[in-house]
Design brief:
The chain is mainly alpha-helical and 161 residues long. The protein has 2 domains: 96 residues, no CATH class; 46 residues, no CATH class. 44% of the residues lie in helices and 0% in strands. α2 runs antiparallel to α4, α3 packs across α4 and α4 runs antiparallel to α5. 20% of the residues are buried.
Amino acid sequence: MQLRIELICIFAATALFAQVPKAPENWKTIDDLPRIDMTDLTAVQKRAVLKLIREQDCSCQCGLKTAECLLADPQCSYSKSLAAMAVKGVKDGKSLLEISKLMDRSPKAHRPKLLEDPVSIPVEGSPVLGPSDAKITMVASSGRCTTCCSRISASSRAKTC
């Protein structure tokens, strides 16, 4: 029962994080973006920053543009960093192309891989529950030598997807 509850919690948390946030419809025309200080910029510089971040993909893998992500997800450090680079580049007098290249080369432009590539674990000859062609295979290794492992071993039952 405990294992079932833990699996449900893991799947629920995964589903929550997999949802893409929704930006307001006016993200393409709004002039004041949260968490981005453009007070020292001229009107021309501000338009240049807005053009850049409306066209640049956010690197948090949300599928949104940087400006769109700033509005949809106030906690996104990737969109905030990319927008800050755009503001700094415009203040420094760089061209839009130069700023775009700087943004692309930034560590914040490329999200690190969260999981390693899948590995094959040989399970031939091992006890199994469920169909052999299941989409997901869970491999559990435990011993009965510790109190925790013996409780889990006695109470857990494999579920297939």
